[in-house]
Design the sequence.
């Protein structure tokens, strides 16, 4: 064996040091900087009359052998309650702008059957309508977020829906509601004035939509004790002109929120989006890059909103987001049924960190879509139900709901693939009303672990505990044969020494730390 020369030893040592340096991150976290409340509504979900989200998802055939209330599937309800689902957006999506709410009330046998033109051309029997949706929200303990029809509806139709839902008195719509078995109004608050009005919601220009918004919003009345949080249909991804025109033309006092839709496409190509589970590192990298773009998107939109609304009274409502892949082979292309892998969990964790860090402006977000559609948190197959990796990330992050965001500063190591690179680490933190500090951290690097340290001077804490969602491969997923491959587990990689917190984050991991 050859003897190592001093120069060779020096080289090895310095390489080791620089490799270590790459994976070592010092996070600056000062709890006294915590001011903005992270609205729990950032952790919302979206459910459309699309594929198997409502029908054969939440709302099942009465012959299906699962626990049910009426036809609402209660195993799904229980699972969503565990992650404290704060709100549920309905009935669309594109479906909202073709939905006529009066088709979905009254005796079910008399409700008209129609075609769902947007999604697969299937029969919509209207058995799930206003009362059923609000019953579901009641069971979930979630606030309803209803999107009204601007595209093919009328101002009168929307005004009457609001009266039906929210007026506690004598009026034609309040009386009709009572005839249909509901005495008291539901007092729905989140109210979408159309959906994607630049596309499936009417193909409007932003100028035209801004005028329409004002007409519809004027007659969507605030009934006593039931003020509406009216949300304008916002931009498609990077179309910042839409945001600009709406902010310029709609006074802040007429608009509680402005929405934004952004989907993460693995290939970036709507024609061939890529498989949900069969992909290599190149596509993994691109998906993460496209997912992390949410940060610049929110930053750009916030900057425009700041120009017209420096007090930040208008909320940015990211009411459609998530990974959109090709459908699972053999399934109806109009049903948007896709599997959900470790990659989805990493996109979810990163996106929720972005929202937490922009919680001064982002006050509502709803992931598309809750059950069996797009980046679902729950998948079902007849009586079987599984929780996706994305579900478990929401379970980890629920600790941030209504806690105060703690700004973080750190320099992330790079996740390098060939000549491309991304920030390997992203994180957010909050302090809740009991004084517990939570830090959620994502390591997107598929090979390298990352060691973090943070000096929590000024904070009284005696222990750190944690949970982790991780898997060996980015395309691992939970199947009906192996539904618990990826779940939230206890994380033991964090230590306290004095005031110093350190943790070793495995590759491909989402970690939640609790300090108290
Ligand atoms: O979530 C699926 C569809 O995506 C929604 O219906 C629409 O709003 C968006 O284009």
Sequence:
């Amino acid at each position: 064996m050859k003897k190592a020369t001093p120069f060779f030893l020096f080289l090895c040592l310095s390489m080791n040091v620089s490799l270590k340096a790459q994976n070592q991150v010092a996070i600056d976290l000062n709890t006294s900087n915590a001011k903005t409340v992270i609205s729990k509504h950032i952790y919302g979900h979206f459910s459309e009359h699309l594929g198997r989200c409502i029908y054969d998802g939440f709302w099942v055939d009465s012959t299906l052998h699962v626990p049910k209330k009426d036809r609402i599937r209660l195993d799904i309800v229980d699972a969503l309650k565990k992650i404290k689902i704060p709100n549920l957006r309905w009935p669309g999506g594109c479906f909202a702008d073709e939905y006529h709410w009066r088709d979905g009330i009254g005796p079910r046998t008399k409700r008209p059957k129609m075609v769902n033109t947007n999604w697969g051309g299937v029969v919509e029997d209207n058995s799930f309508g206003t009362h059923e949706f609000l019953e579901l929200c009641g069971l979930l303990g979630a606030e309803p977020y209803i999107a009204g029809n601007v595209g093919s509806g009328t101002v009168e139709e929307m005004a009457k829906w609001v009266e039906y839902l929210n007026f506690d008195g004598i009026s034609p719509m309040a009386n009709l509601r009572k005839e249909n078995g509901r005495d008291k109004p539901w007092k729905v608050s989140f109210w979408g004035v159309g959906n994607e009005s630049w596309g499936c919601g009417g193909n409007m220009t932003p100028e035209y939509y801004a005028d329409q918004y004002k007409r519809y919003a004027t007659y969507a009345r605030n009934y006593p004790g039931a003020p509406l949080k009216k949300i304008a249909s916002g931009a498609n991804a990077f179309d910042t002109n839409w945001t600009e025109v709406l902010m310029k033309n709609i006074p802040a006092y007429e608009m509680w929120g402005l929405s934004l839709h952004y989907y993460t496409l693995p290939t970036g190509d709507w024609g061939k989006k890529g498989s949900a589970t069969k992909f290599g590192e190149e596509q993994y990298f691109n998906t993460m890059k496209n997912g992390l773009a949410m940060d610049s998107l929110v930053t750009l939109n916030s900057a425009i909103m700041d120009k017209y609304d420096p007090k930040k009274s208008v909320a940015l409502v990211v009411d459609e987001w998530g990974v959109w892949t090709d459908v699972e082979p053999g399934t109806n292309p109009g049903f948007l049924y896709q599997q959900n892998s470790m990659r989805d969990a990493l996109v979810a964790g990163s996106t929720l960190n972005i929202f937490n860090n922009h919680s001064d402006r982002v006050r509502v977000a709803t992931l598309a879509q809750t059950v069996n559609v797009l980046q679902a948190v729950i998948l079902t197959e007849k009586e079987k139900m599984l929780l996706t990796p994305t579900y478990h990330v929401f379970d980890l992050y629920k600790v941030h709901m209504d806690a105060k965001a703690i700004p973080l500063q750190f320099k992330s190591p790079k996740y390098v693939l060939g000549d491309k690179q991304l920030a390997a680490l992203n994180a957010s933190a909050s302090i809740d009303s009991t004084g517990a500090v939570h830090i959620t951290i994502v390591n997107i690097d598929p090979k390298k672990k990352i060691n973090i340290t943070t000096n929590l001077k000024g904070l009284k804490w005696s222990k750190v505990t944690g949970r982790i969602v991780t898997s060996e491969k980015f395309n691992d997923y939970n199947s009906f044969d192996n539904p618990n491959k990826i779940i939230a587990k206890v994380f033991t990689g964090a230590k306290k020494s004095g005031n110093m917190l350190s943790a070793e984050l495995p590759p491909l991991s989402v970690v939640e730390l609790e300090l108290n």
